[in-house]
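Q: What residues go here?
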């Protein structure tokens, strides 16, 4: 192998996973841009709070993504990013309320988790329209 990237590509191929360049050094902003593109490609409803931190409660997740099959609340972190105490509190509240909350890191982009979870809320049978 001539480069580290070629070696990394080979490792991903051996594991049967799609290679995503730069996963090891990806920032939260770069991950958010990838999530935005994936949300758009699937025609999902998504709202990113990543740039609105001062306008939301401390601990509120970066992304709220909805489709006919459900709603995802996702906090984005870089490889070495840490979850704050406020984010841990929010996660507890969301889980106790039965909401689908999780932290996405670049590794979940590389192993296909993000794509699978987005496909799940996109592909599920449409929920009945609420009566008004």
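A:
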């Amino acid at each position: 192998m001539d480069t580290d990237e070629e070696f990394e590509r080979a490792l991903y191929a051996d594991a049967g996973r799609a290679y995503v360049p730069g996963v090891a050094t990806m920032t939260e902003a770069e991950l958010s841009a990838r999530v935005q593109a994936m949300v758009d490609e699937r025609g999902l409803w998504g709202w990113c709070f990543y740039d609105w931190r001062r306008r939301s409660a401390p601990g509120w997740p970066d992304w709220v993504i909805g489709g006919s099959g459900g709603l995802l609340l996702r906090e984005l972190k870089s490889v070495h990013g840490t979850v704050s105490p406020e984010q841990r509190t929010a996660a507890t509240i969301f889980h106790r309320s039965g909401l689908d909350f999780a932290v996405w890191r670049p590794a979940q982009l590389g192993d296909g988790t993000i794509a699978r979870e987005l496909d799940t809320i996109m592909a599920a049978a449409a929920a009945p329209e609420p009566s008004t």
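A: Context that may help when evaluating the design: Residues 27 and 77 are 8 Å apart (CA to CA). The chain has a mean pLDDT of 83.
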